[in-house]
UniProtKB/TrEMBL annotation:
<dbReference type="InterPro" id="IPR036282">
    <property type="entry name" value="Glutathione-S-Trfase_C_sf"/>
</dbReference>
<feature type="domain" description="GST N-terminal">
    <location>
        <begin position="10"/>
        <end position="89"/>
    </location>
</feature>
<dbReference type="Pfam" id="PF25907">
    <property type="entry name" value="DUF7962"/>
</dbReference>
<dbReference type="InterPro" id="IPR004045">
    <property type="entry name" value="Glutathione_S-Trfase_N"/>
</dbReference>
<dbReference type="InterPro" id="IPR036249">
    <property type="entry name" value="Thioredoxin-like_sf"/>
</dbReference>
<dbReference type="Pfam" id="PF13417">
    <property type="entry name" value="GST_N_3"/>
</dbReference>
<dbReference type="InterPro" id="IPR058268">
    <property type="entry name" value="DUF7962"/>
</dbReference>
<protein>
    <recommendedName>
        <fullName>GST N-terminal domain-containing protein</fullName>
    </recommendedName>
</protein>
Amino acid sequence: MESPSAAPPNGIVLFTYPLSAFGRRVTYYLQLRGIAYAYCEQPFMLPRPDMAKLGVKYRKVPILAIGRDIYVDSRLILRTLEEKFPEGKLGSDKPEEKFIEKLLEKYMIEAPPVLGSMVGLVPPHLLDVPGFAEDRVGLCDTEWTQEAIIKGQPECLVYMRRLFDFFETTILADGRNWVLNTDKLSLADIEASWPLDWLIDLKAPMPPHIVSEKQFPKVYAWISRFRAALDEAQASSAPKVVTLHGDAATDFILQSDFTQSGGTVDGGDPLGLKAGTEVEVYPSDWASAHRDSGRLIALAPDEVTIAAQSGGGGQEVHIHAPRTGFKVTEIAGSSTRV
Ligand SMILES: N[C@@H](CCC(=O)N[C@@H](CS)C(=O)NCC(=O)O)C(=O)O
């Protein structure tokens, strides 16, 4: 990475931290695509002053800004990057392959035991940070103390062994290199591999007789190929990432133009919301107390966009969230302003 104070390449700023598995979905994607961007590292725990300055209440990472449009959730972020940089995109155009891609995305992100077992297998010393248990209250219905984590590990191992086995004995069983049997890695490989890659990379406490290269040689070889493809992508192009400190990143965003046109509110949407209504947008699984609020400007089957006020007020930012895994609710008594 290099650190010039220049404007973010492509107007893109990614906010995340190195340990974030969901953040890696996005950094891997950008690296594999060779899309240049600025990286603004966020603290592992709250508070996150950069988000407060932007007026973003959503408390998870990753968050990606393109100009003054701010996208939350790795699913919407990857989808948006595929749309904005279609040349050389990693997603398939074939319905059958898209189906597999999408199912993998849905399963790995939406099935609660995947995340629960991943974080339950984080090497406990990494979580030995004062205030961590309080910061993550409610996450995966677990108490985030070292003792509770160690006690929960066997159940997590039972689940993870099944997940590794699932890939070993189904899609990878015929010895193919990539999930869709493509010549090169595709989006389906990212959608399938990120939790497994994360556990292997973190040296999660998985005993070798339960989860290891010996038990699952095809999965481990696939993850190694994935890592080699990342290294190759990095080596084959000029530095693509600039690091930015919070103020430089947020000042840039707040001074930028919007990069996505407003969109429309689908009149047939089941929620029956109207453009201009003041709404709250928040995740439906965890951290749902952290709600973004603003004027509804677009509502599509899997994307909601609101106009929110920056932290100091005076500036409007557009916050985009997926509908899957998020709720959009009208703020009672709000007046409709179009
Ligand atoms: N569905 C979200 C999940 C994001 C998520 O849970 N991120 C974790 C980090 S890997 C997080 O933000 N944890 C709480 C925090 O860092 O405050 C996505 O795909 O981006």
